[in-house]
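Is this the right way to post structure tokens for a design question? Let me know if I should format differently. Anyway, here goes:
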């Protein structure tokens, strides 16, 4: 039996679909959509970043760099990782990447033994699923408890002899959960016991409103590198609002992993974009900028989201990240219908939870047969609260009015 190419079998992410639906509605109605679907912040990168990039271009610093990125940038990253994350690493294990999305993809490609399993959370960033499938991995999903924390028993239960990688995302997209020290220690202990590698996606490291951000790799700092198993992924996109610059970085646990990702990057990108790396150097010289941005998003969270909690749509305010998952069961609508009707009637775009509860069905060869979704995710929709406060408030007001119109309890 022949199979279509892997990439064509994988459906486009619902995150991209809702973008298209929102754009189409604006075109048809001529009125702007209130965009709560997209994690695009309302604040902007520091002016120094644009200036450093322009200066790099003017000065002709536009040729390829090392595949790992500029040593000067990686030295600053090593210092940041030590100071802020408690991760000790030589610069030879740091890879600057065009966005952390590409860093994650490169890491997965470098680690994947095709046909083996990767453990992903029940509710996940859908790109993690796409990336796993593209790398030839079989995603297996672990449960989250009622606070969206990974359930260790479930991880132990769903894993098996073929499991190789555990993916952890804290602060989490889409749930906003921030993992505490105990849970992280439990995850790491289990991974060590079973011989898994761990990928820690820390894209939202600077957006924590309750508790502290803890980097999983910090707990391995006293181990010799060859015994470490945690590979960490970070980005400038969120902390400094540099989404369109495409700048992130990967810290591999040890030299063997660094050798693997180096090959993937040689084959895939040659090197990260040079002028943008100078922008990264400028950004790292202003560590206070991320803290200013955190306060802005926290202000949105603290002022607008309580209305959703009071309406019974949100169990608790998210402890971190840019997103909240709303439970819309009281409307009697499924997530897809809720999102489509909310867009149609009130001009507010949100993302249906089903897009975060993907369940790829694979055949014995690992070919994708169908992309199912977890029925439990059908009662959830995601909103982004990193947007302009007025936009957020008006979108949430419209969403609450829409829910009240349904008048179902
Ligand atoms: C959990 C998570 N990881 C990684 C990324 C990738 O961000 P970027 O490629 O802009 O660094 C995102 C972006 O939304 C994300 O939500």
């Amino acid at each position: 039996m022949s199979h279509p190419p892997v990439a064509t079998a994988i459906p486009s992410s619902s995150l991209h679909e809702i973008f298209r639906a929102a754009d189409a509605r604006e075109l048809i109605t001529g009125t702007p959509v209130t965009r709560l679907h997209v994690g695009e912040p309302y604040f902007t990168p520091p002016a120094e970043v644009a200036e450093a990039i322009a200066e790099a271009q003017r000065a002709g610093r536009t040729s390829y760099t090392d595949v790992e990125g500029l040593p000067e940038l990686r030295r600053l990253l090593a210092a940041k990782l030590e100071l802020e994350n408690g991760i000790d690493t030589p610069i030879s294990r740091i890879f600057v990447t065009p966005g952390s999305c590409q860093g994650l993809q490169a890491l997965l490609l470098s680690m994947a033994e095709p046909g083996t399993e990767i453990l992903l959370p029940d509710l996940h960033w859908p790109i993690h699923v796409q990336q796993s499938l593209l790398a030839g991995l079989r995603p297996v999903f672990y449960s989250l408890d009622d606070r969206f924390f990974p359930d260790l028993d479930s991880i132990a239960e769903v894993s098996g002899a073929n499991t190789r990688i555990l993916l952890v995302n804290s602060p989490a997209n889409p749930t906003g959960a921030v993992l505490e020290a105990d849970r992280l220690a439990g995850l790491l202990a289990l991974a060590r016991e079973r011989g898994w590698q761990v990928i820690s996606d820390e894209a939202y490291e600077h957006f924590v409103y309750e508790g502290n951000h803890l980097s999983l790799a910090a707990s391995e700092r006293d181990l010799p590198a060859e015994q470490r198993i945690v590979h960490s992924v970070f980005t400038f996109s969120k902390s400094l609002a540099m989404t369109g610059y495409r700048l992130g970085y990967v810290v591999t646990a040890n030299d063997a992993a660094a050798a693997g990702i180096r090959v993937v990057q040689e084959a895939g990108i040659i090197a990260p974009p040079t002028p943008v790396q100078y922008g990264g150097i400028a950004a790292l010289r202003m560590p206070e900028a991320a803290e200013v941005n955190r306060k802005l998003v926290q202000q949105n969270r603290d002022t607008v989201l309580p209305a959703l909690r009071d309406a019974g749509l949100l169990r608790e305010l998210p402890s971190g990240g840019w997103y909240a998952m709303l439970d819309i069961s009281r409307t009697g609508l499924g997530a897809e219908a809720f999102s489509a009707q909310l867009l149609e009637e009130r001009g507010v775009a949100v993302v249906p939870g089903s897009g975060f509860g993907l369940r790829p069905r694979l055949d014995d060869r690992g070919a994708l047969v169908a992309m199912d979704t977890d029925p439990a995710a059908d009662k959830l929709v995601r909103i982004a609260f990193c947007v302009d406060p007025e936009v957020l408030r008006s979108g949430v007001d419209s969403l609450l009015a829409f829910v009240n119109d349904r008048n179902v309890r």
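Format looks fine. Someone answered above. Worth noting: The pocket of pyridoxal-5'-phosphate is lined by residues 39, 99-101, 125, 169, 173, 201, 203, 235, 237, 243, 248 (CB under 6 Å). The CA atoms of residues 73 and 160 lie 40 Å apart.
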